């Protein structure tokens, strides 16, 4: 495994070829028309929040080349499904069926929902077991932000110091994954009348997130990194 100290690409300047499949794969060669798996890693995310659709895509655009800048990766646009639907067999089955109709065919289907007040390990186990039952052929993997997606931002809160009206000396809390309302944590430190809004801020925060700091301080973010590294190898 590479060192955690890696050069983080600028998401607005990184070439699409850095994390997308080469042209021959994207255009649909014979293998992709037959539905055969391709050697290029292909990821299809499933998320629960409206803001997370763009935020997860922005995060993966930075995180994948940071983990391995020698690999091409194709990332499908995240598919948003309500949390309560993903926790039910018919809802998860439908989401996985949709993922497996995509071309290029996914080599990894990322299922991501917030833990909220549930144990992330128990919730992840439930979703993994359910996915195996409703669609055993889908190469799914589960990542549960603890307690919510914004906990990853808390883990690297210094990334946003002096931005969005936040204090210049902003520092992460001692245990970022123990905070129940990460959104409220940021709102309390923003100017009055300018609260943190997921649909507005998630993507912007994802573009600025210090990946080293997030991986070092958040267990669930490390889980995301390790799962992606397995797909890249």
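^ structure tokens above, recovered residues below v
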């Amino acid at each position: 495994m590479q060192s955690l100290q890696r050069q983080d690409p600028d998401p607005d300047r990184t070439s699409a070829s850095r994390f997308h499949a080469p042209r021959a794969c994207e255009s649909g060669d014979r293998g992709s028309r037959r539905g055969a798996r391709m050697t290029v890693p292909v990821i299809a995310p499933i998320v629960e929040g409206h803001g997370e659709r763009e935020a997860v895509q922005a995060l993966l655009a930075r995180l994948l080349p940071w983990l391995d800048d020698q690999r091409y990766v194709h990332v499908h646009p995240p598919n948003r499904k309500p949390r309560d639907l993903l926790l039910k067999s018919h809802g998860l089955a439908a989401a996985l069926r949709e993922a497996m109709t995509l071309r290029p065919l996914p080599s990894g289907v990322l299922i991501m929902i917030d833990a909220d007040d549930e144990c992330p390990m128990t919730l992840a186990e439930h979703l993994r077991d359910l996915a195996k039952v409703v669609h055993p052929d889908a190469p799914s993997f589960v990542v549960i932000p603890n307690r919510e997606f914004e906990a990853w931002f808390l883990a690297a809160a210094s990334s946003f110091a002096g931005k969005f009206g936040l204090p210049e000396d902003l520092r992460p809390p001692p245990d970022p994954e123990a905070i129940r309302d990460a959104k409220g944590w940021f709102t309390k430190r923003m100017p009055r009348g300018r609260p943190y809004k997921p649909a507005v801020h998630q993507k912007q925060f994802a573009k600025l997130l210090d990946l080293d700091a997030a991986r070092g301080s958040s267990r669930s973010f490390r889980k995301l990194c390790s799962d992606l590294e397995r797909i890249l190898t």
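The chain has a mean pLDDT of 88.
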